[in-house]
Amino acid sequence: MFGKNPIRPPEKGDGSVLKVVEVFPTLQGEGPFVGHPSVFVRLGGCNLACDFCDTEFEAFQDMGLEALVLEVEAQSAGLRDLVVITGGEPFRQEIGPLCVALLAKGLRVQIETNGTLWREIPEGVHIICSPKMSGGQYHPLRPDVLARADALKFIVSATHPDYREVAEVGQAAHGTPVYVQPMDEYDEAKNTANRAHALKLAMEHGYRLSLQTHKMLGIA
Ligand code: SF4
Q1: Residue 61 maps to which CATH number?
Q2: Is the residue at 50 inside a domain?
Q3: Atom 8, ligand 1: residue with shortest CA distance
Q4: Which of 8, 48, 162 to mutate to test the pocket of ligand 1 (most atoms within 8 A of CB)?
Q5: In what order do the strands lie in the sheet with 37-43?
């Protein structure tokens, strides 16, 4: 959306109906679960509007929880046992019941979040948090997210004024693994510089490197 999306506050509701953009089978392309066969559930709307955001998340429609779980199960097909709930910002909506239902089906669940919102979710759900900035400052992370996050994934750029470095946003107290992922600026020269920058940060600070392998492979 490249920062052009409306900023949407948290939704009311009990989670029996969710605003869903798409459900699709793929491989998780980035972060700690890279390469895992997955079903992605993309939920609508975000509470932030990042200028580099490359995701369409406004074309959503209401979907009942039961139908959504059936769709995920169908696309899982016994082959993909990881469900990635992403957005937009998934914690904008009441996703607790969805997580409960998916775990009850024997599926693993991973949430991709910007870390600024929270809902009660069952134990065992994996959280990957990608902190986002505005005006040179990281948006503060919810303590609940920090306490539960499996990893923090920092987007880094060689030239974007806000994303040159990784900051301490609470990860030290929890010993949370830090990943650096080069920003995709849709410019090969910039992207080459961003990869080199991410590699340098990883080598100098002991961060883990995350590359967007789904883009390299040309898959969603
Ligand atoms: S938080 Fe994520 S989904 Fe929301 S605008 Fe920023 S990059 Fe896009």
Answers
A1: 3.20.20.70
A2: yes
A3: 53
A4: 48
A5: 61-64, 17-27, 37-43, 82-86, 108-113, 126-129, 151-156, 178-182, 208-209
State the DSSP H helix or E strand holding residue 147, giving kind and residue range, or none if neither. Answer: helix 143-148
Q: How far is the CA of 49 from the centre of ligand 1 (A)?
A: 6
Output the tens digit of pLDDT for each of the chain's 220 residues. Answer: 688 999 999 999 999 999 999 999 999 999 999 999 999 999 999 999 999 998 999 999 999 999 999 999 999 999 999 999 999 999 999 999 999 999 999 999 999 999 999 999 999 999 999 999 988 899 999 999 999 999 999 999 999 989 999 999 999 999 999 999 999 999 999 999 999 999 999 999 999 999 999 999 999 8
Give this prediction's pTM: 0.96
**Structural domain tally of the chain?**
1
Closest atom of ligand 1 to 47 CA is 4
* Residue 6: inside a domain: no
Atom 7, ligand 1: which residue's CA is nearest? 53
Within a domain: 91: yes
Is 196 strand, coil or helix? helix
Ligand 1 atom 3: residue of nearest CA? 88
Minimum-distance ligand 1 atom for the alpha carbon of 114: 1
The response to whether residue 211 sits with its C-beta less than 6 Å from ligand 1 reads: no
